[in-house]
């Protein structure tokens, strides 16, 4: 029996929509520890989402790490309305337009000019595939076709299309499709600080992981095209954080062995870790290291529209210039460089500049840490950690239903907080207020108590 507008949409969605990253049966199992509620959302405003019955949820994870400046943001809405009346879409092969030109220029400037060319797609996994293809094709164009292997880190996540799964090391996403996935990638030890042995600092763990990279490159570097990393935080691994020293050493080693460094900044880019790009926290004499290729998506459009970008160095770009079409990068997607999505990204960059967002986030980051600090003494809380606008901790429990129990308990407390396995994390939009951060902290404490009871 349908008793509310919520139940109406919930029932229709369960019947017709195949939801992502979901065992659909869990939606139907009300009352069981496996139950995963399905929440129909009518509208959003700021950091809040509202259902059809007037219940609200504080978006503690930025709707899968995409939303930076809140839902229905007036400035983004205004920019998109203007763009909508001007140009909604035009193919990018043979045509160009103002938003894509301006966005490419501004992103290149944000890398200090190191990455001078921007290639466009619509989702993160496609950006990964583009970066892998570009790297391999670059080496082929310069007469080194044997450089066809890729390196990734244990626990890495770079997307779930068949090509991107080759460099993804998360069992639940990869194992079922193992026979389809090309075995070209080698998985290296992660610099995750939680792997530290007694007396080891996070920088020590980073140096140990870099030594494994050095040994592998020494033996196999001549056949390797690129190393792909999530700089500073491996998100899907459970917010695994590591010391910037790893990136500094990886840059050095990649240079020495003529291997591209691909920074997947899809989750950690756009200010999430405290700097605009996470890799900027790895420096030599105060100058940030730069990757050869960088992937952006998620937050770059403010969480509004599907958009991904691969930025490449001039060296890579120039190796594709030739009279021959076969030497060109022929990759394309129908919506490559969509003007609406680019305009959303430009409006997002405007907010970063106009509001000095990186500066404001320093105080918010400290408050996120403070909101979780009361849990430091909890007997089942481990590895409390904070990097910019990501705060996380692990929960010591054998309960296979922990993450869903916690998720349901948090929803009951008006908070959208979706643990990854036993890792509870906060990754709120940057417009979150101090009061809202405090609410998230209280919801986590309450949900933890209920989920472990
Ligand atoms: C989300 C994510 C991807 C994949 O992006 P999609 O748009 O979901 O395909 C790739 N890499 C990282 C680091 C991500 O967080």
Question: What does this entry look like structurally?
Answer:
The protein has 453 residues and is α/β, with parallel strands linked by helices. The chain folds into two domains: 42-72 and 367-452, Aspartate Aminotransferase, domain 1, CATH 3.90.1150; 76-355, 3-Layer(aba) Sandwich (Aspartate Aminotransferase, domain 2), CATH 3.40.640. It has 15 helices and 18 strands. The strands form five sheets. The protein has a seven-stranded mixed beta sheet, with helices on both faces. A four-stranded mixed beta sheet has the order 1-2-3-17. The protein has a three-stranded antiparallel beta sheet with strand order 15-16-18, covered by helices on one side. α13 (357-372) packs parallel to α15 (434-452) and α14 (402-412) crosses α15. Bound molecules: pyridoxal-5'-phosphate (PLP).
Quick structural summary:
The chain has 453 residues and is of the alpha/beta class.
Any descriptors?
15 helices, 2 domains, about 450 residues, single chain, four-stranded mixed beta sheet, binds pyridoxal-5'-phosphate
